[in-house]
Amino acid sequence: MTDAAYLLVHDDREYLLEPGEEFGTDLGVIEVPEDVEGGDEIETHLGTVFEVRELRGPDLFNHLERTGAPMMPRDIGLVMGHTGASAGDRVLDAGTGSGILSAYLGRAGADVTTYEIDAEFADVARENMDTAGVADRVEVRTGDVSEEIDELAAGEPFDVLTLDTGDAPAVVGRADELLVPGGFLAVYSPFVEGTREAVLAARDAGLTDVETLETIQREMDFSERGSRPSTAGVGHTGYLVFARAP
Questions:
Q1: What domains can you pick out in the chain, each with its CATH number?
Q2: 175 phi-psi bin (left φ>0, alpha ψ -120 to 50, beta other)
Q3: What is the pTM of this model?
Q4: What pLDDT digit, counting tens, does each position of 90-136 carry?
Q5: Which class for 121: exposed (0-12), middle (13-18), buried (19 or more C-beta within 10 A)?
């Protein structure tokens, strides 16, 4: 991976900073050495000590710059688990957004080509890949993947195809041309209508093992009175469609 930013932590304070960066806080000025490493301690000019931590996946979700609602870690975990995306895989992604999924894939060792139709969002995603230390593994392209399918299908096939776009069903219809035999497709949608269209497109395209999941997760509350699921927050995040190329 390329040089990544680090998380500096003191009690409930967390700052995402890069080697060589200087940052002012009410606890003092933090000067991050160029040769900083995880586990180091940095003292501000007022004597406050910050612990240096290497970034982990949840830190990316919490601290990378956002251009919209990113895919939640619970959904990313299902994508990683159901596609088996890992080191050496070639991944085609569309709907980059903030790039959280692409960053996770890159940190797992996959080589990712991801498309973002909004040029400003794409610029932010590139900066986020630098911060995550995966700019050498994740190529953020500005454009619509559906307009590049013919060229992509004529090239080396991909091991995994991940989609988080409104026109996902149209791309799903060409998935067998984009994927290696047995390669995996994952489609995320916040709405059931788009999910149904993706499922029908996968079936029409002759993909196998078509499966649809709704992501629901509830936190638990524990107190002296007893234990129960939390009544705060919304458990539903979205729908995921998985399938395999024949």
A1: 6-54 (3.10.330.20), 59-244 (3.40.50.150)
A2: alpha
A3: 0.89
A4: 999 999 999 999 999 999 999 999 999 999 999 999 999 999 999 99
A5: buried
